[in-house]
UniProtKB/TrEMBL annotation:
PANTHER family: OROTATE PHOSPHORIBOSYLTRANSFERASE, URIDINE 5'-MONOPHOSPHATE SYNTHASE. GO terms for biological process: 'de novo' pyrimidine nucleobase biosynthetic process; 'de novo' UMP biosynthetic process. Residues 31-236 form the Orotidine 5'-phosphate decarboxylase domain. Keywords: Decarboxylase, Lyase, Pyrimidine biosynthesis. Substrate binds at D37, K59, S142, Q201, G221, R222. It is an enzyme of class 4 (lyase). The lineage of its organism: Eukaryota, Fungi, Dikarya, Basidiomycota, Agaricomycotina. The active site is at D84, K86, D89. Pathway: Pyrimidine metabolism; UMP biosynthesis via de novo pathway; UMP from orotate: step 2/2. One of its GO terms (molecular function) is orotidine-5'-phosphate decarboxylase activity. This is Orotidine 5'-phosphate decarboxylase.
Amino acid sequence: IYLNTYADRAKNHTNPAAKDLLEVIERKQSNLCISVDVTSSKDFLNIIDTVGPYVSLIKANFEPSLIPRLQDLSIKHDFLIFEDRKFADIGTLSTFQGNTVALQYSAGVHKIATCPGPSVIKGLATVGLPLGRGLLLLAEMSTAGALARGVYTEDAVRMARAARDFVVGFIAQHRMEGRDRGFFDFDPGVGLDTIGDGLGQQYRTPEQVILESGCDIIIVGRGIYGKVGNMDTGEVQRQAERYRNAGWDAYLQRLKCLR
Ligand code: UP6
C-alpha cells in the first residue's frame, strides 16, 4: 500500500508522538521544523513566537528553565517540540549554557561524538514510551565529509526497525525506508539562498529534499532567522512563511508524482 499523505499516515501510526506530529503537519499544512540554535533566551523565545504559526515542530537544545514558556508557546501556536540531545553536531550554538560541560557538548566545535547502540535506545524507551514520546536516530549528516554513512547508516535503520514502537524516524539526507513511510525522514541542511555556511554545512532546497529525496520534514535554522543579533522580526516571519510554502508545495508535487 502507498500511504502517501501525512493524513493517511496519521491514521495508521501507533506511536502517539508521531501521530500527533502527522496531524499537526496536516492541520497547519506545514512540513517545516525550525531549528532554533541561539544563545540568548530572549532571542530564542522571540524567534519561536514569530515563526510559531508557520511550523509544525521546533527543534532546540534548551535550558530546563525555558520549558514552561516553550510549552505555552507550543499551545498558543500548535506545534510540537523536538528536544535535540545529540552529541555529534555541526558548530552551531544553543541556549543550553548552564554549565561548562553542557556548553562544551552543545556549542562550538569541540563536539563529543557518541554512537548510541541498541541498549541506549532501550534505556530511553523505558522513560519515553510511557510519556508517549518518540525517538529519532541520526542516520546521515548534511555536513561535507560526514562519517555517518554506509554501515553506520544501515545499522541505524536496523536498530530503528528493532524498536519500531519508540523509534519514529531518522535525521537523514534521503528516504531511509520503502514507500510504506512508517518512519519519518527529517532533513537538516536546507536553504533557499545559499549552498553552505563555510563551515561544512551543505544546503539543499526544499524541492530537492522533499520531492527528489523523498524526505518528510525540512529542518531550517539560519535560513529563517539569519544572523542573530539584529533580528528583524518581520523578516523572520517572511522567511518562515516562505520556507513553509516551499516545503508544502514540494510535498504536493510529490503526491502528484506518486499517483
Ligand atoms: N543538523 C545538521 N545536519 C545534520 C544533523 N543536524 O545541520 O546532519 C542540525 C544542526 C542545526 C540544524 O545541528 O541545529 O540542523 C541546521 O541549522 P542551519 O539550518 O542553521 O544550518
